[in-house]
Design goal:
alpha+beta; two-stranded antiparallel ribbon; elongated; Alpha-Beta Plaits; 11 helices; 3 domains; 34% helix; 3-methyladenine DNA Glycosylase II, Chain A, domain 3; single chain
């Protein structure tokens, strides 16, 4: 047996293995995919049911959405309050309620306030009614039709039709945005959970036309603007809107609003 041949063969194998290891190490660093540490920690906290109830494909997608800020820390409907609080801490939130958002319907045109121009006998679906001339039986073409498309897509039973308009139960809402996506009039939006005063109107018509269509609606008078000491409310395109990063919840705008469409809800 040639001892030298065995030594040379062993050396060649050893050197080859070492070179391969070095190359793999360099390749691993060069082509490594960066992973957000917050995403990893959030994924570890999520239950792992992959039920899709949050509106995302599964827990991995949900963890990614929470980590990049496109979903709230309490967006998982299966997670307990303790888990949601732990996720909020991972995201650096001092109080989950400060970051939590909920859906809000910008309409106050209930059956007793909205003027009807005809009786609609079609399918109880806002998307179908939107194809009808005038977009449903109500004279206001900006407001809630009340046929419940948003109700049918909500996985949390957080939105219902009451007296002709959709109303959100913010305690049940998980801000999944499914109601927002399905509303043809785009009158559902997300607002902070702790927000107080809200503008219950979506019409961009001028004041006279608003009153002809609904007993309650924003007439664009700008009185609310003049009352606000923090410049949190502005009237643009005949409609008031609130900047919640500036609003202190004083209620001065609501007190002076002649149409009474700024309410503490």
């Amino acid at each position: 047996m040639n001892i030298m041949a065995i030594v040379v063969a062993a050396a060649v194998i050893g050197i080859t293995g070492l070179l391969i290891g070095l190359l793999l190490g360099v390749a691993g660093k060069k082509f490594a995919v960066e992973v957000d540490e917050k995403e990893i920690k959030v994924r570890e906290l999520l239950p792992g049911n992959n039920c899709g109830g949050c509106g995302y494909a599964g827990c991995d997608a949900m963890a990614q959405a929470i980590a990049n800020g496109s979903a709230p820390a309490n967006g998982c409907p299966v997670a307990s309050a303790e888990i949601s609080k732990a996720i909020a801490q991972v995201m650096g939130a001092k109080d989950e309620a400060l970051d939590r958002q909920v859906a809000f319907v910008k309409c106050n045109g209930t059956c007793d306030k909205a003027v009807r121009k005809y009786n609609y006998h079609g399918a109880n679906d806002c998307r179908m009614a939107a194809l009808v001339p005038g977009k449903g039986e109500k004279k206001c073409s900006y407001g809630c039709m009340g046929y419940g498309s948003c109700v049918s897509v909500c996985p949390f039973d957080a939105i219902h039709i009451k007296n002709g308009i959709a109303v959100v139960d913010k305690e049940k809402c998980k801000a999944c945005k499914k109601c927002i996506a399905v509303c043809p009039n785009q009158l559902i939006t997300l607002v902070p959970y702790n927000s107080t005063y809200k503008v219950l109107c979506n019409s961009n018509d001028k004041g006279k036309d608003v009153k002809l269509a609904c007993d309650t609606g924003c007439i664009g008078c700008k009185i609310c603007e003049k009352q606000c000491g923090t410049e949190a409310i502005k009237v643009e395109n005949n409609l008031a809107s609130i900047d919640y990063s500036k609003c202190i919840g004083c209620g001065a705008c609501a007190q002076k609003c002649p149409s009474k469409i700024i309410k503490n809800t």
